[in-house]
Amino acid sequence: MNGKNVIGIIGLGMIGNSTAVLTTMHGCKTICYARTPEKIPQYEKAFDDMYREMTEKGLLSESQAAICKTYLKYAASYEELAECTVIFEAITEDLEQKKACYQELERCCPSLLFIGSCSSSIVPDRLASQAGKYKDRLIVTHPFFPVHMVPYFELCGSKETAEGVLQTAREVLLSLDRKPVILKKPNPGFIGNYLQFALWAAALKLLEEGVCDPEDIDTCLQYSFCPRYTSIGIFEHFDNGGYRLNKATCDAVFPALPRYEEAPPIIREKAASPTAWGARAEEKRGFYDWNHVDMAAYKERVNAPYWKFAVCDYPDKPCE
């Protein structure tokens, strides 16, 4: 158990609430700052629902879940975060709001080891420019949702980041059974989204050129190479295959890969249409028609590969 660090979480949307489940299930005292205190019952329900799913899956008992929940409390002011040594900031992607947050943390929290922003799009140098005395401890700690199930974290510092801060953040995340990686320098989309959107660009080009339908691409991904990469990595795969065939395939395929400078027309049209929210739009349409889809079963398929990562050495005593 991580008995040393008190974790503060700011921004209680999906990422923040899921992070609170992650830290409490590892026995970390966790303080969630509710910027809108009247929404605390809503935040509590989201938190409880995630634990309910875990108990329904048999990952822990209801009594164990009850113990985990004792490690969480909600705060209505930044002053109540004073004892925190680690902060995960998950507020909206707005620099002015983040700046106001960092100013309050600098005022109220004297012993922070790092502030980990969960930003998925703002590079750490821009974040650090909004901070004062903690600019050398402000880094990106980008997770994937659900944070308590998907173990991967991307860590990235700025030019201001002090020596050892990224390593400290890595050690904290390792103690939470995560799989953190440290980027040597910022990159658009960091690693995960950069790779995911490279694949997305290629998929969209296949549609635009009339090569196949969306269902064909999804069938390819589910039943050809994607399952492989749940047990080995892409560099392992190509190392094992050798590079004569690899070079020949690169020479044939790379010239045909998309080189979009912005979102292609097929996405721009959808973003401007009534179905901009895809499956969540009123019309429930994207590339697929979602009107008769069992969304509970869909969610079950989404989460199926990740439940094993929500198992840990849960605390056996309530928080003191």
Descriptive notes:
With 320 residues, this protein is α/β, with parallel strands linked by helices. It has two domains: 7-190, NAD(P)-binding Rossmann-like Domain (Rossmann fold, 3-Layer(aba) Sandwich), CATH 3.40.50; 193-306, N-(1-d-carboxylethyl)-l-norvaline Dehydrogenase, domain 2 (Orthogonal Bundle). The chain is 40% helix and 11% strand. The chain has twelve helices and eight strands. Strands 3-2-1-4-5-6-7-8 form an eight-stranded mixed beta sheet. Strand 4, helix 4 and strand 5 form a beta-alpha-beta unit.
Largest sheet composition: 8 strands, mixed
The amount of helix comes to 40-55%
**CATH architecture classification name of the largest domain:** 3-Layer(aba) Sandwich
How would you classify the helix and strand content by structural class? alpha/beta
Question: Which regions have little confidence, pLDDT < 50, spanning 5+ residues?
Answer: none
Q: What series of H and E elements makes up the topology? A: EHEHHEEHEHEEHEHHHHHH
> How many domains would you count in the coordinates?
2
SS summary, helix count: 12
Strand order of the largest sheet: 3-2-1-4-5-6-7-8
CATH topology of the largest domain: Rossmann fold
C-alpha Rg, in Å? 21 Å
Distance between the termini: 14 Å
Count of DSSP strands: 8
Strand content: 5-15%
> What is the CATH superfamily label of the largest domain?
NAD(P)-binding Rossmann-like Domain
Globally, the shape reads globular
The top-level CATH class of the largest domain is Alpha Beta
Average the pLDDT over all residues and give the rounded result.
Answer: 96
